[in-house]
Amino acid sequence: MKVLIVDDLLNNRILLKSLLKGIEDVEIELADSAAEAFRLMGIVDDHINTEEPLESIDLILMDIMMPEMNGVEACQLLKELPATRHIPIIMVTAKAEMQDLESAFNAGAVDYITKPLRRMELMARVRAALNSKREADKLRRVQAQLRRQIHQLEQDRQASPAIAGGEGASVSSVASGNAMTTQDMNEILLRLLRFGFCTGIEDTSRFAEMIRAEWKIAAKNKALMASVLVEIDNFDEYEQQGGEGAQALVDSLGRIMLEVITGEGESLYPGGPGRMAMILAVTATDDALKKAQMIQKHWRAACEEGTLPETSFTISIGVATVEPTERNLPADLLEICEKALQRAKEEGGDRIKRN
């Protein structure tokens, strides 16, 4: 994750950066003014050309007293822009400036730290803010996934009371933008995915249509597209024998795969009875394999911990990665991934194979 330090004094910027060195997986960016911070975030004339929250900055440490535009004014502007309002801001203040904190919190700051800086306090507040940002990002990704699924179902005119039924939050509450927890959204998405098994969404040609938008974006950005197809081994036989835990097993797989989704351009779809498929844009050929390994690791852990409805089942996973061009289609990716899955099953299951 990336932290932006905004302070007009060089010594303060250097000190803050050195104090944050103990936090793992954090990159530090420095700005000597609010104007420089805006430039780094692509803001020109108080405007930015996207409605999406910026992924490049995850937290801002903002000094209150700065020339030209102070920290409170900068915070207020960032919170007014749709692209930056989700970035948490911690105000850095001297004790003499405590009267400005009320204005800072009214402007949208989430926390503050006073000078002289204390390393343990600073690291604790930064870690807390980054953890909150991580969870908020995940919530927005799940919500975006839900809305895509809802939109697709509406287009197909296959709406059913079964989608919104059951306990917990309703699909309509997602469409209306009401606040929900990640667990609420995951459960609704699972119901949508379950509905797909009954409506034919798992058909390969239909599946290809659903990922066409992601495919076009990847082709434009010269990125790679990958598919991870997971099947519960011996699921068909278990279901045919009247296994009462069949749907619960699929739901468990869905929950595990939802936990693995971490970024934009990653979507989960039903892939057939006892199957789930993940489509994702990647930058390296090993990215999808790492996702598959995480899924397998979580599944095995759930079996060992006894949290699955049936703990004797293993999973087979097929992984495929291609570069979208004018000569290939999403269906080609799915076909390659299907072949990789079949190889995994032919070799005894409980393994991962890729193209």
Q: How would you characterize this protein structure?
A:
48% of the residues lie in helices and 17% in strands. Residues 49-54, 157-177 and 194-208 have low confidence and may be disordered. The protein has 14 helices and 10 strands. By secondary structure, the chain is of the alpha/beta class. The chain has a 5-stranded parallel β-sheet with strand order 2-1-3-4-5, with helices on both faces. The chain has a 5-stranded mixed β-sheet with strand order 7-8-6-9-10. Helix 5 packs parallel to helix 8 (182-199), helix 8 (182-199) crosses helix 12 (246-260) and helix 12 packs across helix 13. It is elongated and about 70 Å long.
Q: Give the strand line-up of the largest sheet.
A: 2-1-3-4-5
| Rg of Cα set | 24 Å
Low-confidence stretches: 49-54, 157-177, 194-208
| Number of DSSP-assigned strands | 10
Helical/strand content category: alpha/beta
* Number of alpha- plus pi-helical segments: 14
Overall mean pLDDT stands at: 77
How would you summarize what this structure contains?
With 355 residues, the protein is of the alpha/beta class. 48% of the residues lie in helices and 17% in strands.
Essential attributes:
355 residues, 14 helices, 48% helix
Note the topology.
Layout: E1 2-6, H1 10-19, E2 27-31, H2 34-40, E3 59-63, H3 71-80, E4 89-94, H4 101-107, E5 111-115, H5 119-156, H6 161-164, H7 171-175, H8 182-199, H9 204-210, H10 212-220, E6 224-232, H11 235-240, H12 246-260, E7 266-270, E8 275-282, H13 287-305, E9 315-322, H14 330-346, E10 352-354
Parallel strand pairs: 1-2, 1-3, 3-4, 4-5, 9-10
Antiparallel strand pairs: 6-8, 6-9, 7-8
